[in-house]
Amino acid sequence: xxxxxxxxxxxxAYLSWEALYRLNELGETLDLRTIPSAIGGDKESRHGIxxxxxMPARRAGVKTAETLGDARKKCPNLVIVPPHMAIYKEYSxxxxxxLQEYSPVIEQYSIDEAFVDMTGLGKKIQNQPxxxxxxxxxxxxxxxxxxxxxxxSSNKILAKMASGFEKPNKVHSLFPDExxxxxxxxxxxxxxxxxxxxxxxxxNLGIRTIxxxxxxxxxxxxxxxxxxxxLIHDYANGIDPSPVTAEAPDNKGYGNSTTISxxxxxxxxxxxxxxxxxxxxxxxxxxxxxxxxxxxxxIKNFEFSRGSHQCTLDSPTNVTxxxxxxxxxxxxxxxxxxxxxxxxxxxxxxxxxxxxxxNLLEQDKYIRQGKLEHAIDSIRxxxxxxxxxxxxxxxxxxxxxxx
Length: 403
What we know:
The chain is α+β, with helices and mostly antiparallel strands. The chain has 14 helices and twelve strands. The chain has helices at 13-24, 55-59, 68-74, 85-99, 123-127, 129-144, 156-163, 179-182, 196-204, 210-215, 218-236, 267-287, 320-334, 360-383, and strands at 5-10, 37-40, 50-53, 79-81, 106-110, 113-117, 148-153, 171-173, 254-264, 290-301, 306-317, 340-352. The protein has a five-stranded mixed beta sheet with strand order 5-6-1-7-8. α1 (13-24) packs across α4 (85-99) and α12 (267-287) runs antiparallel to α13. Residues 43-47, 355-364 and 391-403 have low confidence and may be disordered.
């Protein structure tokens, strides 16, 4: 049975949800989606950029991630409203609940994106997946009031690429037999996980389109880009065996991320942020006396392209040094050198502390390290977070956690 995977992507999520909130909850009559408008941060702070824009604003040349000042130069009558993340999270929850009506296997990729595994859920799904996706698209609009794009394929990477085709409010398929026609002619920078830095390195190899990447010698590509080169070569050929992973409701995850006040381009600096985040996550795990079996690192670059990389541990842990070692390995494997704006560490597949099984030498080391970190946690709880600090943090006061 061929897999059927949908990728649902909300069109202009923040702006759409802000418009609906103002119409439905505040009783406003002007729909932000129908005028030149944008969601933007405080112009006096480093967050003074465009986070989302309406179609009229887009037609006026307004771009996501540009400064409010630049946007106003292009569109003097642009209406800018501040973001309300708590409201957007509520709309996101409503979307995920609606998707549960169609499949029990849903992987929320971000606040406004999700993969849905539709495999084996009826003959219509297998025979007419695009028609089913159209039904879901209409249902979301009728019940929740906002539009989505849906990509339909046999794996996650192709479904995600398909959802990025013509917008808004569209359903697109991208099955393996459609790759050469629909995906290969696209610029290589359109491929998922190809950021500006990687694109420039591919250009130096004479690669301009996704098709040229797909047909390029894999060994040469890997010699220039390492594992990342092999990954994007697979993606260009539509290869992605990763499953749609839905966590059980009671399998709580622990994570933390930080938005950075400047572009981070140095690996050593990025790893200081990782260490700070691992300390925060490890402390919460230890407080609840649980262990994590999966560690993931998330990176958002200066273009606001977001992605993550995860691994399953041989033994579950809540020790900061172990979390950090895995986080650094994931970072080295995934980061393509693009300037970093946000970095995060998250954990999942949580079990009780008593579930860890080790040999005697490992167990002794783990217990001693655990006691030390529990003692540090206690001191910080009593005297404050800065009562005990790692020496590396004294040189990087900006490594503060956002929560």
